[in-house]
Amino acid sequence: MLRWRGLESTPGDLGRTVVTVGMYDGVHRGHQTLIGAAVARARAMRRPCLLLTFDPHPAEVVRPGSHPAILTSLDRKAELVAGLGVDAMCVLPFTPEFSRLTRETFTHSVLVERLHAAQVVVGENFTYGHKASGNVGTLAEEGRRFGFAVEGVALAQDSSDDGEVTISSTYVRACVAAGDMVSAARALGRLHRVDGVVVRGDRRGRDLGYPTANVESPQYTAIPADGVYAGHLVTRDPRSGASQERLPAAISVGTNPTFQGSRRTVEAFVLDFDGDLYGEHVGVEFAHRLRPMAAFDDVHGLLAAMAKDVADTRQVLRL
Ligand SMILES: Cc1cc2nc3c(=O)[nH]c(=O)nc-3n(C[C@H](O)[C@H](O)[C@H](O)COP(=O)(O)O)c2cc1C
Ligand SMILES: Nc1ncnc2c1ncn2[C@@H]1O[C@H](COP(=O)(O)OP(=O)(O)O)[C@@H](O)[C@H]1O
């Protein structure tokens, strides 16, 4: 998949394109339907399918300090959308100036002049332009003027304990924040993953008999609620970010209150594994929450709980 940042870096030889526009944070099942529709349309028209997305999250620019938790880094998003058949991903820096473009200027200067859209595929709730004044109806009207067609795709639904919910990044963030990884996975169509680099911790794990890979992730990463989880550690290629090996793990999220820690960490004890992971680019996948984080009176209490966590992890992962 081709990938570039900034409109000025757009390759000149793309020809006319099928464009799908959105933040696509999480690349959840609703996004997958939408991107699938854009890819199918592109194949039928024998045009490249181009995904236009933004960085940072527009909320941070429009309402400073209100950055939402990020479900997928740009590298992970690229890996996922490439897997859906997208041919090119263009990342537009979302700046205050960009946020002030009128909807016609966005349509003309971005979609028409730079990306040469023949067809635009968006969700039926898509908005664009200054103060989000544009919608699918205005885009279709501009398309008639500038010579591209518009397809608005219905949003995917999911049944949960609370009845029908519309699958959205906001819904997945709420599931992750509550530690409900099963609902998050249902909406995502795969397990939620935190990407980062393995850093040094307090060097206590090995002495306890449970060495843990401490994973440091970028600011704003959507980290599940404090607690202990069954899941996996995924090793990644440091250059491409591509996923490699997937190893079963018991995962701890919290401040290690037994040792009066103050920093919140994500730590994975990889089952049946002994090796050096420091500096590795990894992902931590969360399958199921086992219990809350606890402050034990002594190390024996913690060790007994960890032994049970490992047994529970084997059961949840059917190992
Ligand atoms: C499966 C698992 C469960 C854990 N549960 C707790 C817990 O309930 N309370 C706690 O204080 N720390 C818990 N921890 C974190 C340990 O305290 C931590 O891994 C240990 O102190 C080693 O830290 P280090 O990697 O910085 O050396 C857990 C870790 C794992 C892997
Ligand atoms: N089974 C395992 N799971 C996780 N990390 C392991 C495992 N075996 C060895 N390691 C290595 O040990 C390191 C963790 O050891 P630990 O004593 O917990 O130190 P730290 O406090 O620096 O995390 C990991 O970063 C990794 O390099």
Give me the count of strands: 14
Return the CATH class of the largest domain.
Alpha Beta
Radius of gyration: 22 Å
The parts where pLDDT drops under 50 for at least 5 residues are none
Per the CATH scheme, the topology name of the largest domain is Rossmann fold
Instruction: Give the ordered list of helices and strands.
Output: EEHEHHEHHEHEEEHHEHEEEEEH
Q: Oligomerization state of this entry?
A: single chain
| Strand composition percent | 25-35%
Looking at the overall shape, the CATH architecture of the largest domain is 3-Layer(aba) Sandwich
Give a description of the structure.
- The protein has ten helices and 14 strands.
- The protein is of the alpha/beta class and 319 residues long.
- The chain has two domains: 2-157, HUPs (Rossmann fold, 3-Layer(aba) Sandwich); 191-316, Elongation Factor Tu (Ef-tu), domain 3.
- The strands form three sheets. Strands 1-4-3-2-5-6 form a six-stranded parallel β-sheet, with helices on both faces.
- Helix 5 (103-112) crosses helix 6.
- The chain is elongated, with a radius of gyration of 22 Å.
- It starts with a strand and ends with a helix.
- The mean pLDDT is 95.
- The site of adenosine-5'-diphosphate has 20 residues, from helix 9, strand 10 and strand 13.
- Residues 201-205, 208, 210, 212, 214, 228, 250, 252, 256-259, 267, 269, 293-294, 302, 305-306, 309 line the site of flavin mononucleotide.
